[in-house]
TrEMBL record:
Database matches in Pfam families: Casc1_N
Basic and acidic residues: compositionally biased ranges: 9-40
InterPro entries tied to this protein: IC97/Casc1_N, IC97/Dnai7-like
First and last residue of the signal peptide: none
Domain IC97/Casc1 N-terminal residue range list: 32-232
Protein name: Dynein axonemal intermediate chain 7
Annotated region (Disordered), positions in chain: 1-40
Organism field: Monodelphis domestica (Gray short-tailed opossum)
Domain of life of the organism encoding this protein: Eukaryota
Coiled-coil spans in chain: none
Similarity section: Belongs to the DNAI7 family.
Length: 730
């Protein structure tokens, strides 16, 4: 064993490195390290050089694209200028229709007044006010004309461009609306009094009291007269309905009557504020200048084969107005001036990058020609019980609840009908009785009155509504004062108790459908598109054909009756009103930004986008993109796909476009990309307008269809987009 151990030690000594060998190994390792470092350095330099070269190539390519865009910018703006003439033509047509409507009313000669003529309205109101003792049927018949007059006045205030209405006209129309509201309610009170005087003639065979339901398309009147004053009849249910009430013993044993008067309209809430132009003189000057331009163009007949020269002349004589002074929401004048002023700057220096001067943030309001005011601050009521009508709205009409003094009944004596007349008209029965010194605790012993009302099936509530009562002194809706409020949404019944009676209504959130989950605008025929808006609660399709719109489809279930709205053609303003009154409000107001978390966008960029979407709507489908939230307020992003023969655009056929009002580009990303990137799609260019960017990829058939689009159709699509504002509220 000994010699073996010795051999092992000798082997270990042989493996030990000498000093020179160690130095040599260290030198080799150092050389290897230096070589690796050199290779890494050269690789880094090579990569940096390649990156720099790529960046320079990309920069040169970008500069070439920008220069190319600058060179054709004037030409593109000129073409867009000519295309957007359709909006001015539409405004002229609508103005002619407004003027002709007065003539058509005149030759109709049906005896109804022209609501825009103050003397005729005053005469109509005075003559009807002088009529006495009209029965309920006569009042209901006349109420249809009154409601029609109110609707016409409201549409005049809504549809007429603000610069065409003077302050005196606005005040006159609003005064007429208020007078008609008051007169109509007065006449229904008068007719109710006439009916109650004859209550004994309509007594029920079982109870001896009068129970009556009078129903019309606009109103429903439930009247009960306590003729027998039998305390046993305290709970009343009208006919086959669930509507009724339970009154305390004091009322059941008194000469009382109970009226539940349901109106499908709201004549209690304050009138909406009519937008007024900030600087009417500037807008009038622009319109006058534009008229002069057209006159000049008609006088200057172009030579044969000189169309381009004629277009240049048309461009040169357009007046330049500073962008900060005139802001018109759907006014082609503003957009044309904005585009052309940029074009003129670029004619002087095509190499310079365009500078977009934008005024402070503005809000787009629906309407034909309006200024774009600053976003107003929504004043929230300090009293938490007061309903904020900027964020909430009465829905389903008004329920006027009344406890009335039963008037003396008519008596038949020897063939004569004798009626004791009491001055003062319909008298309210004071309940609870006023506090007196003889019975100081009487006010604490009177039970509340219980009511049961039914929600009409032509109104859609997507959440449990709030109940509100009208405060006559405060001129506001309030949510306090209700006792034991109970909702049966399956049967659409609401029961509640009140210590005293008021007009009551149901309240719904104005922004229950905002923000939208998605949207799509797709063509379905010649001058026809469907705008689909998907919200948290429903899916809505609005069909546009020529200048008319209709609600084509909505998902609300089978428990609703919307025949008054579905598949009914009307103009866009009437459709907006009807959809709001039904509970399908997808139309933001100027205050909506304070109540909804919006996808904030520059209003001028948004407006330009809608206009060019309308121009292309005959052949292209536009859709919501998730990247619209990632591109900032100065840009909008949307999906675009040509749609001519198919019903829908396939998922792999969509393209992503970005537009900032001055430059449009097609992006490389798609909806399934992980991160946002503004990188251009390969083999694409830059354009000054979204229209020309999309035109690069359009077929000849698509462009031919776009050129043949009706100008009223383009205007209607634009107004619908401006009313729904899909780019901001989705």
């Amino acid at each position: 064993m000994g010699p073996k151990k010795k051999g092992k030690k000798e082997g270990e000594k042989k493996k030990k490195l000498t000093k020179s060998e160690r130095l040599k190994l260290q030198q080799e390792e150092e050389e290897r390290r230096l070589k690796e470092e050199e290779e890494a350095r050269l690789k880094a330099e090579r990569e940096a050089a390649e990156k720099l070269e790529r960046e320079q190539v990309e920069k040169r390519k970008w500069e070439e694209l920008v220069e190319k865009d600058q060179l054709r910018r004037t030409e593109e703006f000129e073409e867009l200028f000519l295309l957007e003439k359709c909006f001015i033509d539409a405004e002229k047509w609508k103005k002619e229709v407004r003027n002709l409507s007065k003539w058509f009313h005149y030759i109709k000669c049906d005896g109804s007044p022209d609501p825009s003529v103050a003397p005729e309205m005053n005469t109509f109101i005075s003559l009807w006010k002088e009529k006495e003792n009209e029965d309920i049927d006569a009042v209901i018949k006349q109420s249809k004309l009154v409601l029609e007059l109110i609707e016409k006045l409201e549409l005049v205030l809504l549809d007429t461009p603000p610069h065409e209405l003077t302050d005196n006209q606005v005040a006159q129309y609003q005064t007429s609306i208020m007078e008609l509201r008051e007169l109509l309610h007065f006449k229904f009170n008068e007719a109710t009094e006439t009916l109650l005087r004859q209550a004994s003639s309509f007594g029920d065979t079982d109870s001896g009291n009068m129970e009556m339901i009078i129903k019309d398309e606009n109103v429903t009147l439930y009247v009960w007269a306590n003729l027998k004053k039998n305390p046993k009849y305290k709970t009343i249910k009208f006919g086959d309905t669930d509507i009724g009430f339970t009154i305390p013993k004091l009322l059941a044993s008194s000469d009382t009557a109970v009226r539940i008067f349901h109106t499908n309209y709201d004549h209690i809430s304050p009138l909406s504020v009519v937008p007024r132009p900030v600087k009417t003189e500037i807008i009038d000057a622009i319109i006058e200048d534009f008229t002069n331009i057209e006159t000049t163009q008609e006088e200057a007949v172009p030579q044969e084969g000189s169309e381009e020269v004629a277009e240049e002349q048309e461009l040169e004589i357009v007046p330049t107005v500073p962008e900060g002074e005139v802001k018109m929401e759907e006014s082609t004048l503003f957009i044309r001036q904005s585009n052309l002023s940029v074009s003129k700057e670029e004619v002087e220096s095509k190499k310079e990058e365009p500078v977009v001067k934008r005024s402070k943030k503005e809000q787009i309001l629906p309407g034909p020609v309006e200024t774009i005011p600053e976003v107003p601050q929504a004043e929230v009521p300090t009293d938490e019980e007061v309903v904020d009508l900027k964020g909430f709205t009465p829905l389903g009409g008004i329920y006027h609840l009344n406890i009335l003094q039963l008037p003396p009944q008519a008596k038949q004596i020897k063939g004569w009908t004798i009626v004791e007349l009491i001055s003062g008209g319909l008298q309210k029965f004071v309940y609870p009785p006023e506090h007196t010194d003889d019975n100081p605790e009487s006010e604490n012993h009177h039970k509340p009155i219980e009511f049961v009302i039914t929600i009409n099936r032509n109104v859609v509530f997507f959440e449990k509504p709030m109940m509100a009562r009208w405060d006559t002194e405060g001129k506001a809706w309030r949510t306090d004062g209700f006792i034991s409020l109970y909702y049966d949404m399956a049967e659409r019944n609401i029961s509640f108790s009140l210590e005293t009676v008021y007009p009551v209504t149901l309240i719904q959130d104005n922004h229950i459908h905002m923000p939208y989950e998605s949207w799509e605008l797709r063509p379905v025929g010649d001058n026809e598109v469907i705008l689909n808006v998907t919200t948290t609660f429903t899916d809505i399709d609005i069909h546009v054909k020529d200048s008319q719109c209709m609600l084509a489809a909505v998902e609300v279930g089978e428990n609703y009756e919307l025949s008054h709205l579905l598949k009914k053609w009307m103009n866009i303003s009437s459709l907006i009103i009807a959809m709001k009154q039904t509970g399908l409000n997808i139309f933001p107001s100027e205050y909506s930004g304070a109540y909804v978390a919006v996808n904030d966008k520059d209003p001028l960029v948004e407006m330009k986008t809608y206009r060019q979407m309308a121009l292309l709507a005959s052949s292209f489908s536009f859709c919501w993109s998730k990247w619209n939230q990632a591109c900032g307020p100065q840009n909008v992003i949307l999906k675009v796909g040509e749609l001519l023969k198919k019903e829908y655009v396939e998922d792999d056929e969509w393209s992503i476009y970005m537009y900032n009002g001055e430059r449009a580009q097609k992006l490389k990303i798609n909806e399934s990309s992980n991160t946002f990137s503004g990188e251009l799609e390969e083999h694409t260019e830059l354009h000054s307008t979204l229209y020309h960017m999309i035109k690069d990829f359009a077929s000849k058939e698509a462009m031919e269809k776009i050129r043949n689009s009706n100008y009223l159709f383009v205007d209607a699509v634009c107004k619908l987009l401006l009313s729904v504002r899909v780019l901001t509220y989705s």
